[in-house]
């Protein structure tokens, strides 16, 4: 790091595509956000699949993502499979730009409609999704298993791009 680098402001957060090389980092982030975390092997498999689009959130000059979103594209529709921000990125307004960039990438690939599921009690995620224009289209009772053994509903949502 140069002398100037030590005293200059870090660049803002940015979003970049991710590949299989990020699998272990994504698994680590996912484990901080979900009771049933996906493994590195699961992420490697997904990231290697055709039709999977993954975007990472990078803070400042860091070379490892602090968050990510992963979607599966089939013809002109996509499903957001998972979104997670690491503890250092939560509550700082990073989810919306990450998702906005991801949705723009999906739109550029010809996606017209995006689907997702979210835990009914996840107020921060619901607020972001609703601000982006997602509409609730269904509810799956008892879909998610919490770490304490209880079950909660999943809301299904969709957005036309």
Automatic annotation (TrEMBL):
Keywords: Acyltransferase, Transferase
Keyword Acyltransferase: yes
Any GO MF annotation of the entry: acyltransferase activity, transferring groups other than amino-acyl groups
InterPro entries: Acyl_CoA_acyltransferase, GNAT_dom, YpeA/RimI_acetyltransf
CDD domains for the chain: NAT_SF
Residue ranges occupied by any N-acetyltransferase domain in the UniProt entry: 13-161
Official protein name in the record: N-acetyltransferase GCN5
UniProt-listed Pfam families: Acetyltransf_1
Organism superkingdom: Bacteria
């Amino acid at each position: 790091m140069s002398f100037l680098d030590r005293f200059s402001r870090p660049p803002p957060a940015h979003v970049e595509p991710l590949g299989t090389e990020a699998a272990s980092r994504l698994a680590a982030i996912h484990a901080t956000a979900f009771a049933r975390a996906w493994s590195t092997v699961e992420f490697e498999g997904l990231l290697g699949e055709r039709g999977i689009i993954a975007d990472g959130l990078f803070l400042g000059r860091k070379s490892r993502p602090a968050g990510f979103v992963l979607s599966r594209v089939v013809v002109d529709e996509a499903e957001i499979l998972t979104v997670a921000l690491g503890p250092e990125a939560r509550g700082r307004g990073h989810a919306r730009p990450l998702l906005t960039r991801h949705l723009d990438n999906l739109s550029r690939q010809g996606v017209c409609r995006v689907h997702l599921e979210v835990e009914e009690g996840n107020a921060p995620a619901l607020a972001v999704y609703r601000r982006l224009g997602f509409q609730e289209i269904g509810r799956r009772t008892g879909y998610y298993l919490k770490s304490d053994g209880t079950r909660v509903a999943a809301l299904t949502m969709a957005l036309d791009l």
